Amino acid sequence: MHILLIHVKKNRLPEHVLRSLEADSLTVITEPGHLQQYGPGVDVRLVRDVQDVECLRAEALALLRQGPVDRIFMPFELGQAQAAFLRDCFGIPGIGFAEANALTNKYVMKLRLREAGLPQAAFAMAAGIDQIERAAEATGWPVIVKRAVGGGSIDVFRFDTPEEVRAFAQSPASDAFRGLTCPLVVESLVDIQTEYHCDGIVDDGEVRFAKASEYFVPVLDHGEHFGTRILPDGDETARRIRELHRRAVEATGLRSGVTHMEFFATAGGLLASEIACRPAGGGIPRALALQTGVDVWQACLDTSLGRAPAVEETPDDAPGTIAHWYLTVPAGRITAMTDEAELRRIEGVVDVAVNYKVGDAVPDRQNSASAAMLVFARADGQAEVERLTKEIYGAYRVEVGGE
C-alpha cells in the first residue's frame, strides 16, 4: 500500500505510529523546518504551507504522475480539510471535504450541531477583526473569540465590552488574527462549572468506543495545576456526554475516524462545545490506553487506511479510574527538574511521561496540553484526586534560565 502522509511541521507522530507507516510505501508532504524525522527510505517532499490547497494539490499531482496513492493519512487539526480535498480531487478513499470541513471549521461545525439540536452557547461568525463587535452584539457580551480553524487553545481571546475589542484591534496582539485564511468564531462566554471531554472511535458510521472524562479545572487559563480523570462508565454525566457525542458524530457525517469532543457543564445544563476528528493531545491517549487497553492513535491510523480499528477493552477490576496531571514549565532553558523516579514513588502513580529534560529549551508559545512531564495514577473519587494533586505538585520542581 502506498500511503501519503500530510504533516504539519510543528507536530510529531507517536513513534509506534510512524514505524507502522514506514512498514508500507510512504511519501510525506510536509513543510520546511519540520520536527518529525523519517527513515532513509521515506520520500519527503516540502511545500511552503500544507494549508495552501493549491500548492498541496500540485505536489500531490506530481506524486500521482509517478504512481497511484492508495490512502492519505492526516491526523492533525491543521490540514485535515486540505487532505480531504485531495481525496475528493483525485478519488482517493477516506474522509471527504464536507466531513473534514465540518470537523475542523468551528463555525460550520457549530452550525451542524445546532441543526441536530445539540445545546450550545450562542455563536456567530466574524470574517475579520472589524466584524467582532457586530458578531458580539448578536451573541451577547462577554464573548470568546478564536480562529475558526485552529486548536490547542492558542489565539483565544476574551472581550467584555466593545471598547476592549477596539483597543485589541489597535494592539500588537491582534496580529494573531491578521492575514488568516479562515474566519473567526465569536461565542458567548458561559459560566463553566466543569469542563469535560469525550474520546471516541467511529467505524462504519457507528461509535464503537467512547470514554468521557472530567478536567480538574476548565482548560482556558487553567494555570499550573491541570489534568483530567476518566469517569466511570456508569456515571450519569458520562452517559449523557456519550449520547451527545454520538449525536455530534452523526451531525458531522463522520463514517470512520477518531474523535475528541469538549463539553461544558453550566447552571443551565450540559453544553456541547467542539468535536475534532483526531486523537486528543497531551496525555489523554496514554490515559485511555492505561484504562482500557485501546490505542486511539492506532485506531486513527487503521480507520484512515480502511482497516477495522481494535476497540475491545481489556477487562479491568482495579479500583478507580486513570487520571493524569500536567507538570507545566515556563519558557526558557531547563536547568534543574524533579527526577521521574521521585514521582513514580507516590502511591497510586502508574506511569510518568517525560517530554522535556534538563538542558532542553522550552518555547514561549505553548498550547493547553504543553507539559514538561505527565503523571498518570489511579484515583477512586474526588478525595483521591485531591490527595494525588497535592503530592504530585508538592514533589515537582523545575528551574529554567532566561535563555
Brief digest:
The protein is 30% helix and 28% strand. It has 403 residues and is of the alpha+beta class. Strand 6 and strand 7 form a beta hairpin.
Description:
- It is built from 12 helices and 19 strands.
- With 403 residues, the chain is α+β, with helices and mostly antiparallel strands.
- Among the domains are: 2-94, Rossmann fold, CATH 3.40.50.20; 122-188, ATP-grasp fold, A domain (Dna Ligase, domain 1, 2-Layer Sandwich).
- Strands 13-12-9-10-11-14-18-16 form an 8-stranded antiparallel sheet, with helices on both faces. The chain has a 4-stranded parallel sheet with strand order 3-2-1-4, covered by helices on one side. Strands 5-8-6-7 form a 4-stranded antiparallel sheet, sandwiched between helices.
CATH topology grouping of the domain at 2-94 = Rossmann fold
> How far apart lie the N and C ends?
46 Å
- Count of individual beta strands: 19
**Number of separate helices:** 12
What's the shape? globular
Q: What level of helicity do the residues show?
A: 25-40%
Instruction: Order the strands across the largest sheet as they lie in space.
Output: 13-12-9-10-11-14-18-16
In the CATH scheme, the class of the domain at 2-94 would be Alpha Beta
Proportion of beta-strand residues: 25-35%
What's the architecture of the domain at 2-94 in CATH terms?
Answer: 3-Layer(aba) Sandwich
Assembly context of the chains: single chain
Computed over alpha carbons, the radius of gyration is 21 Å
> Taking all residues together, what is the mean pLDDT?
93
Counting helices, strands and paired strands, the structural category is alpha+beta
